Structure formats: structure tokens, C-alpha cells
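Need residues for this backbone.
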């Protein structure tokens, strides 16, 4: 019986390896499509700029020819009306000049029409390519989460399913895999530093043209804006690194890290006041619990800033002998809890974290009346023993 179980586990591992290879191949293909689309997007963008410049030049030329054609028609009309007072050569010359200008104007107008059509076509293709690029980026991020899950957690499935305790640990690791954090990090990098750096790349291509066409003063102003964008991208990267996991959480503990985080958040958001009150003894909790509670408070504060547009946020935390109680109250625009929103992944992730700790999460809110998040996590006598064991490690 034991040999049959081991054989099943080995076969399961082989299936997982095949899954990983297939998913990795799919990720590489999607990444290749995204890169090819980016290259085509950049090429079409350059061509679009050239077409726009040619269109402007053609319109100016058409306007010039239109004025000359009008003068030629007036000249021809004058010659026709005074036919006998002009020589045959003058009449022929006036007619030929009017005819030539009319033909040139027609050709220029046709070229303008073709350039406009080409411009519209390029803009449509660029919009389509941007959709492909964005979708490829999302798919690569989602597949990366799946690969991390398969590599870090699912490879252990054979051993984890051998007993009830191991099954419980497997379920815990699945929830702790933090797919939501990875998706959030992917979105923030895509919407923040990645967009800024792409814009920096486009602006850098224009600096040389600005120097040639508009002079050094305009180019210097362009370079200053360029530097501002680089600084902004660097600031975004540093913020994302900090959000990924504050190092102070492991060194100082939950309470000092929360104080620092809330203070920093207040400084980054002008006009926002964030208060923090801690009641009870300041003790160290298991690192897993400290990380989970920190993320819960972080998610609640960010929701209050981004979605509720709050100006005052009050964070309270109390440690009793049996429970850890946390409340996050804001004066934002609130919402109707009875209305279920689609793609409310933030709240789903918060509930999963609280359930993982064996606690409860309650949200009280109303439109125009702010929101309060209540978190209740049980503490037992094994907390101190767990801390001691983790410190020994």
C-alpha cells in the first residue's frame, strides 16, 4: 500500500512538472508577442510623427498653391475679357499657367487626402497594438503568479497530502502565497514606473529633435522635465519596495512599524491627517501574524485614501490577554455594504487574511458617512512560546 502511495506521489510530481513547462512556454510566447507589439508600436509611432509633419507641410503647400491658382484664374479672366488687347502668346501663357497651377493643386490635395487616411490608419493600429500590449502584460503577470504558486507551493503537494496536519499546512501556504499582493505589485509597476519609464524613453528621442529645430533653451527645459520624470519613477520604485515588506517589521515589531508607516503615508498625502493609538502591552507576535495585521491595516488605509478620498483617518489597536483588536476609521465618502461590487479583490484578500488567523472582519459604512473597519484576532498562550522559538531560530 505504501509503495502504491509513493508511486502516486511520483506520478503527481511528473504531472506538475509538465504543467510548469507548459505554463512557462505559454508565458514566453505571450512575452514574445508583447515585445514584438511594443517594437511595432514604436515604429508606427515614429511613422505617425513623420506623417503628421508631412501633412502640415502639404496643407501649407496647398494653401500657397490655392492663392496662386486664384491669381492665375483672375489673370486668365482678365485676358479673356480683353481678348483683343493681348497677344496670342500672353493668352496662351495665362491659360497654361492657370492649368498647371490647377493640376498641381489637385495633386497636392490628393496627397493631403492620402496622408490624412494614413494618419487615421496609423492611429487605429496604434490603439489596437496598445490593447495587445496591455493584455499581454496582464497575462504575463497572471501567469507569473501561477508559476510561483506551482513552483513554491504545488511542488510539495505529494508530501503535504499524506496527513491531515500536512493538508492543513498546504492550505495555509496556498493562502499565504499572496497572489493578491503579486497582482497588486504587477499593476503598480505597470501603472507607475513602467509607464513613466516608457514616457521617458519617448521624451529622450525628442530631445535631439528639439535641439535642432527649436534651440538649446527649449531643449534645456525639456531635459529638466525629463529629470523630473526620472525622479518620479525612482520615488515610485522605492515606495513599491517598501510596500513589498518593510524591513522594520522583522527588527522592531508591529507597533513601531505601523507608526512609521502611518507617519510616512501622512507625509506623502498633503492635507491628510492620520492618527494612531495603541492600548495595552506592546508585545511581539509571531512574524506571520504581525505581517498579516500590518497588511490589513495598510490595505484599510489605502482604501480610505484611494477610494473613499478621506482626509482624516484614525487607527486604533488594542492588545488584551486574549485578543488583538484593530479599528481603522475614516471620514471618506463611504459606500453601501449591501451592494456587492465586482472585482472587489481587496476586501476578499482582507477577509482571507483574517480567516487565516482565525479572526473576524467587520465593515461599517454608509454613503457620505465614512467607513470603519473592525478586525478581531484571537491571541492564545502559545503566542509567547512561538515568539521564543522564532527568536531561537
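Answer:
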Amino acid at each position: 500500500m505504501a509503495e502504491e502511495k509513493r508511486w502516486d506521489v511520483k506520478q503527481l510530481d511528473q504531472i506538475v512538472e509538465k504543467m510548469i513547462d507548459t505554463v512557462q512556454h505559454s508565458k514566453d510566447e505571450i512575452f514574445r508577442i508583447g515585445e514584438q507589439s511594443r517594437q511595432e508600436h514604436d515604429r508606427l509611432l515614429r511613422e505617425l510623427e513623420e506623417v503628421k509633419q508631412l501633412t502640415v507641410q502639404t496643407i501649407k503647400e496647398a494653401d500657397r498653391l490655392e492663392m496662386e491658382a486664384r491669381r492665375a484664374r483672375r489673370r486668365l479672366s482678365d485676358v479673356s475679357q480683353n481678348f483683343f488687347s493681348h497677344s496670342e502668346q500672353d493668352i496662351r501663357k495665362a491659360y497654361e499657367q492657370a492649368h498647371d497651377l490647377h493640376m498641381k493643386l489637385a495633386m497636392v490635395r490628393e496627397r493631403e487626402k492620402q496622408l490624412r487616411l494614413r494618419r487615421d490608419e496609423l492611429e487605429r493600429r496604434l490603439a489596437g497594438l496598445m490593447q495587445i500590449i496591455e493584455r499581454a502584460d496582464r497575462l504575463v503577470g497572471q501567469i507569473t503568479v501561477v508559476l510561483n504558486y506551482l513552483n513554491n507551493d504545488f511542488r510539495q503537494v505529494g508530501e503535504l497530502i499524506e496527513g491531515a496536519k500536512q493538508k492543513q499546512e498546504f492550505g495555509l501556504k496556498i493562502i499565504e502565497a499572496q497572489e493578491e499582493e503579486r497582482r497588486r505589485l504587477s499593476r503598480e509597476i505597470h501603472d507607475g514606473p513602467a509607464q513613466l519609464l516608457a514616457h521617458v524613453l519617448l521624451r529622450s528621442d525628442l530631445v535631439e529633435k528639439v535641439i535642432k529645430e527649436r534651440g538649446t533653451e527649449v531643449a534645456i527645459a525639456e531635459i529638466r522635465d525629463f529629470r523630473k520624470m526620472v525622479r518620479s519613477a525612482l520615488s515610485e520604485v522605492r515606495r513599491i519596495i517598501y510596500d513589498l515588506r518593510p524591513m522594520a517589521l522583522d527588527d522592531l515589531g508591529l507597533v513601531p512599524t505601523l507608526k512609521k508607516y502611518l507617519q510616512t503615508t501622512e507625509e506623502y498625502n498633503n492635507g491628510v491627517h492620520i492618527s494612531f493609538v495603541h492600548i495595552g502591552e506592546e508585545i511581539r507576535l509571531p512574524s506571520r501574524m504581525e505581517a498579516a495585521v500590518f497588511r490589513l491595516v495598510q490595505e484599510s488605509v489605502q482604501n480610505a485614501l484611494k477610494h473613499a478620498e478621506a482626509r482624516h483617518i484614525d487607527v486604533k489597536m488594542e492588545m488584551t490577554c486574549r485578543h488583538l483588536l484593530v479599528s481603522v476609521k475614516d471620514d471618506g465618502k463611504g459606500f453601501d455594504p449591501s451592494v456587492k461590487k465586482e472585482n472587489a479583490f481587496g476586501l476578499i484578500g482582507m477577509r482571507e487574511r483574517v480567516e487565516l488567523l482565525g479572526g473576524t472582519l467587520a465593515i461599517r459604512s454608509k454613503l457620505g458617512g465614512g467607513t470603519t473597519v473592525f478586525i478581531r484576532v484571537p491571541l492564545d498562550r502559545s503566542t509567547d512560546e512561538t515568539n521564543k522559538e522564532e527568536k531561537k531560530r
